[in-house]
Structure formats: structure tokens, C-alpha cells
Amino acid sequence: MCGIVGYVGPKATLDVVLAGLGRLEYRGYDSAGVSVIGENGKLETRKKAGKLANLRNSIAENPLPSSHIGIGHTRWATHGAPTDGNAHPHLGGTDLKLSLIHNGIIENFAELKAELVAAGTVFASETDTEVAAHLIAAEYARVGNLTDAFANVVKRLHGAFTILVIHEDEPDVVLAARCNAPLVIGLGDGENFLGSDVAAFVEHTKRAISVGQNQIVILRADKVELRTFDGEPVEACEFTVDWDASAASKGGWSSFMAKEIADQPQAVADTLMGRLRSDGSIWLDEISGFSTDDLKAIDRIIIVACGTASYAGDVAKYAIEKWAHVPVQVELSHEFRYRSPIVTPNTLVVAISQSGETMDTLMATRYARELGARVLAICNTQGATLARESDAVIYTHAGPEVAVASTKALTAQITAGYLLGLFLASARGATPRTELAKIGRELLKLPAKITKVLDGLEQAKALGTEMANAKSVLFLGRNVGYPIAMEGALKLKELAYIHAEGFAAGELKHGPIALIEAGQPVIVIVPSPRDVDSLHPKVVSNIQEIRARGARVIAIAEQGDTEVSQYAEDVIFVPQTLPMLAPLLTVIPLQGFALALATALGLDVDQPRNLAKSVTVE
Ligand code: F6R
Asked: Residue 101: which of 92, 88, 83 has the closest Cα?
């Protein structure tokens, strides 16, 4: 939520900051704003409600001076409506020489604001953020040193915040503080950067430092200092970004989402690379810190995640339980955090998150660690807080996911879940190695099979376009098809804003079948007829039950399933694979369907309303 950029160096600051905001806009697009200190020494600010394009237009009409220091913000509104006035940056002091941007929520803002109002401060916005701007300006007036004033004030703020400040009277420094919200430093040559994530600066530098909790950054063109909130120096831990800037651009596609759907064979192949050998055997170096005895001692796995990532967790549950014989429960992070889960030192908590910054998932993992569990992260973003705070990390190598709706991150997370299942099964001797190798070899074929599904994606897209006027779409699945049904429904809700529900097909007759009326579109994920668990005939029966009540059925079935064609108006065939691995194929048409339906409605598929990519507030 909210994207933050800071820059100090010789380049044209406005260009650097606006380009960074463009790459971070997926984090929030309720408003955008920038402040620079011009070569004339004056602080100047432009900010505008709505998307970044509005800010660009406003700067075109009212240009900013050339400058070598600046900050920029793209907002997902929390306190205060998405108006020009509530847009960041916010100015502090009666002289308005200080400019501040913020990602997060200042929970004690009401009492701090009362203190300022009593002292005569006049507020220009309804935000919690403006409180911090005035407090720092007042403290600066008192102590005469911006860094000291900044440090004194951030210690008084409660909640979640990353804050960046510049001041006209100290025009060579950007100050930043991080508490429960993301912040990464980019190290350049005679220039330095700050960003909510590395996408903000990856086109300029691949050298980065992830800022820790309760730390302050003092950023100058030629020097970067890190301190704790109490003033203790912190040794920076540098890493190299392995994304390249072109991965975060549309590259000729109509949308980031379309590009990211097409990226999936690569995302899955890259996630498997170096971990699965051609003979199907597996090695996960990332969890080599867990001894075989540790892995054998695990008696329960709890997967914590939110939204689409939780559906990846649901798929992982089926695989891990089947292959590794360990009980797995999947918990929405925000629910797990606020109950009394049974966690012991033999519990492995697996936290799945594309961004690695989802506050609910971070809070869940912290809680799990307090309770004595070890935490393994499945994460897509280097340097993310989740990765830093976990005992081990399996990185998904999906590359930057810019569209708000998750696609390639999901398939990479599912892939990582399979790898974990195979690794645990192997370490615990739960499934014969020959069987695991067979699964591994099939997994290696999945990128090519996904490409085949993508080659035929037009069919799903045409159906999406055709159904643009549907009031509601239902999705049914069973076993590993169930989380995919829920994912299909989530994609449609978030992209097309229409009612959509995913159900376990077996649950239908326990209530949801009452929703079926003439013409109701229902997309059914049909299990393989080759599956030994014989779920296929049961799902075919479910299809007959809903068709008898007038449903319009679209089936996603595997090639060679001749029976299903008799019962569905449309069948989208995907290549055969092991039933457990089918989610990597069956989810793709659902992504194409939602993309096309939302596009037909004229909606912005990359930036759906009310959403932000990275949910960094609870
Ligand atoms: C839906 C979507 C969200 C995220 C969820 C978790 O398309 O993208 O449901 O999956 O907010 O985000 P991460 O994976 O960053 O923790």
C-alpha cells in the first residue's frame, strides 16, 4: 500500500522519481505527488488525486524546477479521502519548508494531532501523515538539526510507517525511517535511491540494501548511513537485485496482466531451475539449515497466506499431505494471528507471499515464531521483510509482478509448494523415491504444457468477452480443483467487479445449488478421468445436476476426456498431467477468462478499483 521513492544525485530528479512511481503505481493509485528542492534552493511540491497520469499532466501545466533531490509518493488511501489535499507529500511547519511522504498508518495520530492543534498548528489535510510533518518541523525548530529532530519524532510514532523527509534548509539529505512497512535503499555511483521495493530504482542500480525494523536512513549522494531509532549505527547488508528493469515493463503487451499470464512458463521453469534435476530428484538448498532430523520431527505444517497466495497454500496442502504424510492446515494470516493456534517447536509454519510485505502475513509469522515455530517463507521479492524474518526462504523466481491481480506469482507459488512437498517426502522417506522422481520429471514438463494452454487461450478469452454482461459467474472444483475454482472467482471479482463464487463441487447440493437458474454461467474444473480417486464421475454428476436446472456450463477438462463434452456447452481442454499437478494448467484459462471479461467491460485490468498490490496495513 502506497509507493515511496526518494532520490539524491546528479540525474534529473523529477524523471527519476516519476519513473520510480510509475513502477510502484501498482502499490496504490488513489493519488500521486512529488516534492523537489530546486537549484534555486526552494522546495516545490505537486500532487494530484487519481492516477500518476494526472500528476504528470499537472506538472506539464505547472513545471517543477530542475533539481538533484526529491521524493515521490503514490497513495492507497487510509486516513482521508483520495483528494488533492490528502495526497502526499505533506508539508510541515509554518514556513512549509519540510516535505514528508508516508506509507502505513500512524495509530496514535489523534493524540499527536490534539497536541499540535493545542499549540496552534493549522492542518491542511485529513491525513494521519500530516501530523508527522508538523511534529518534525516543530522539533527541527527546537533542536536545529534535521536528523536529530527526525529521530526524536519517529520514536513517538506508533503503528506502521515508512516515512521520507526532505527540508529546504538541509537540501542535500533525504531522511527515512522504517517501522513495519517496507523500505529498500538503492546504491548508485555518486547517487542513491530509496524505494518501497527495488522496482523503484532497478533501472539505475542493482545494488540494494534492505532496511531493517526501526531503522533510520540518512541518504546523501555520496554516502548512506543506517542507524537504529536509538541512534546506534547499523551495519548494512547489501544484496544484488536479480530482476532486470525490462522484466517490469509491458514490453508491447496490452497490459501487465496479459504479459504476466504469458510469462508463466518462464516463471515456473525459473522456480524449478537448479532445484529439480532432469532425473526428477530434488535439492532445496534453501532449507539445508533444517537437518533431516528436523524435517522428520515436523508433525504439523501450518500455511499462512492471504488471497491468491492462500489458494497456492491450499494446493500445497493436498500435495504435502499426499507425498510427505504430514498434516497441513491452511490459515488466512489475519485469522491465524488473532486466535490461539496449537503451535509447538515441531510445527513448521510456511508463509506464502508474493510481495513478502503483506502485513497480515508478517504479523502471523511473527506470532508463530513467538509461539516457538520455525518459519519457512515462499516469497517472490528479494530483500522483503518476510524473507528477512523467516528461518529459511524458498524464492519463487517469477520476476516482478506489476499487475495488481496475481497470476504468475500464483503459478510460481504452487510450483514452490510442490517442491517443498517433494523435498519433505524425500527427507522423511514418506513416498518411494521412484515415485517422487516420476512426479519430479512430470513437473519439469509443466512449463511446456503451460505454453500449450497459452497457445489456446483465445477460447477462454472469447468466452470471457461473450459473458461480459453476466451478473454472476460460479466456479466449481474438487480436490486440487477446489482452490483453483476459488481463484477463478477471485480474479473475476477483483477485475470485473461482478459477483463470483468458487465452491467445492461436492458442497453444491448442501446449499449453493439454489443459486442456479436458467442461463447461470458455471465454470467447472473437471478432474482427470484417469485419477485413481474416481472424482471424475462425481463431478460429471454435479454438472448434470446444475444443467438440469438451466446452468450454462463451461468445463475445463483434460485432453482425451470425451465424456465431459456431452454435458457442457463449452469445454476448454488442457494437456494431460498428473492430477496433483493439474492446477498449473487449469488456472490459466480462468486468468484469460477474467482478463477478457474485464477488458470487454472497459476496465483497467492492471489497476482494479479499491485495490493495491501490496497490503501493508492490517
Ligand atoms: C489477488 C491478489 C491478492 C494477493 C494477496 C497476498 O489477485 O493478488 O489476493 O494474493 O493480497 O499478497 P502477497 O502474495 O503479496 O502476500
From this structure: 88
Distance (angstroms) between ligand 1 centre and the Cα of 128 equals 26
Contacts of 213 (CB under 8 A, 6+ apart): 178, 179, 180, 385
Report CA(358)–ligand 1 centroid distance (Å).
Answer: 8
Res. 613: pLDDT tops 80: no
Asked whether 443 and 415 are in contact (CB, 8 A), the reply is: yes
Is the minimum distance from the CB of 496 to ligand 1 under 6 angstroms?
A: no
Which residue type sits at 447? P
Question: Hey, what's the cell of 71?
Answer: 521524493
| Residue 613 is among the residues annotated as catalytic for this protein | yes
Pairing of strands 31-38, 67-75: antiparallel
d(CA 74, CA 63): 19
pLDDT tens, residue by residue, 105-146: 898 999 999 999 999 999 999 999 999 999 999 999 999 999
pTM of the model as a whole: 0.84
Say what the pLDDT of residue 263 is: 94
Domains of the chain: 3-247 (3.60.20.10), 251-444 (3.40.50.10490), 454-606 (3.40.50.10490)
The number of the ligand 1 atom at minimal distance from the alpha carbon of 358 is: 16
User: CB 329: neighbour CB atoms within 10 A?
Assistant: 15
Is residue 192 scored above 80 in pLDDT?
A: yes
List, in sequence order, every beta strand (DSSP E) within 319-463: 328-332, 347-353, 374-379, 392-395
Task: Tell me the CA–centroid distance for residue 535 and ligand 1, in Å.
Answer: 30
Determine the residue of 257, 306, 353, 492 to mutate for testing ligand 1's pocket, defined as the one with the most ligand atoms within 8 A of the Cβ atom: 306
Confidence at 333, pLDDT banded by 50, 70, 90: very high
pLDDT tens digit string along 560-586?
998 998 889 999 999 999 999 999 999
To which H or E segment does residue 522 belong?
strand 521-525
